[in-house]
Amino acid sequence: MGGKREDRVSDRDNALQIAPALRRYIREFEIYESLLRKWQKSINLVAGGTLDELWTRHFADSAQIREFFPSLENWVDLGSGAGFPGMVLAICLKDRPGAKVHLIESDQRKAAFLRAVSRETGAAAEIHIGRIENELPLIADSLTGVTARALAPMPQLIEWSHELLLKNVKGVFLKGEDWAAELTGSSAADSFQIWTLQSRTHSSGRIIALARDFGA
């Protein structure tokens, strides 16, 4: 048991080094962790094998978006699931006036979990229960960033986000080792500028950022 606790402390310390944005909100992320472990017993929120690296694999992995794109404060997270990256961003933005992260999730139980985390942490979050294609148009005018993690291949993410991207909302998507093949299979380069940023938590992962104009 002691080893498990030491592993968790080490994981948290590692996450705080990777993503300093977490440091200001350690108490909130401890609440998030506690709620996730409790709800995980009845809902499959994350892969069980990642629980001992929760802070690095999920919190820091999500918070690196805040580190790379600090000027973006009004986000939508597509298919939020357990809240990665959207709820992490919403906690990191909770003290920013006017900031908000919209989390779209179609699963009622996962949405209930997200609402519990938002309520207990005071996150700058609004939870939307429904399909992406139905919910996204309702909030499109308020956004500066659109994100998703472990949801769908790049062509599908771009299809859902296309109208936002045309308005120069920035697309920021966390991708795994197949990121290059996914980009090759999309027509994004025909319409948008693309950045690929090395993930701080996965050596083979990338953050794929798209915009009509990154300077705007």
TrEMBL record:
Matches recorded under InterPro entries: rRNA_ssu_MeTfrase_G, SAM-dependent_MTases_sf
Cellular component, GO, one term? cytosol
What is this enzyme's class at the first EC digit? transferase
Q: What is its EC number?
A: 2.1.1.170
The answer to keyword Transcription regulation applying to this record is: no
Q: Determine if Ligase is one of this entry's keywords.
A: no
GO molecular-function terms, A-Z = rRNA (guanine-N7-)-methyltransferase activity
Q: Where is it localised?
A: Cytoplasm
Principal localization reads cytoplasm
Which UniProt keyword terms apply here?
Answer: Cytoplasm, Methyltransferase, rRNA processing, S-adenosyl-L-methionine, Transferase
Which transformation does this protein catalyse, written as a reaction?
guanosine(527) in 16S rRNA + S-adenosyl-L-methionine = N(7)-methylguanosine(527) in 16S rRNA + S-adenosyl-L-homocysteine
Report the superkingdom from the record. Bacteria
Q: Which Pfam families match?
A: GidB (PF02527)
Binding residues for S-adenosyl-L-methionine: G79, F84, I132, E133, R149
Q: What does this protein do?
A: Specifically methylates the N7 position of guanine in position 527 of 16S rRNA.
List the NCBIfam families hit by this protein, alphabetically: rsmG_gidB
Instruction: Name the PANTHER family on file.
Output: S-ADENOSYL-L-METHIONINE-DEPENDENT METHYLTRANSFERASES SUPERFAMILY PROTEIN
Q: Which family does it belong to?
A: Belongs to the methyltransferase superfamily. RNA methyltransferase RsmG family.
Q: What is this protein's record name?
A: Ribosomal RNA small subunit methyltransferase G
Record the organism.
Answer: Methylosinus sporium
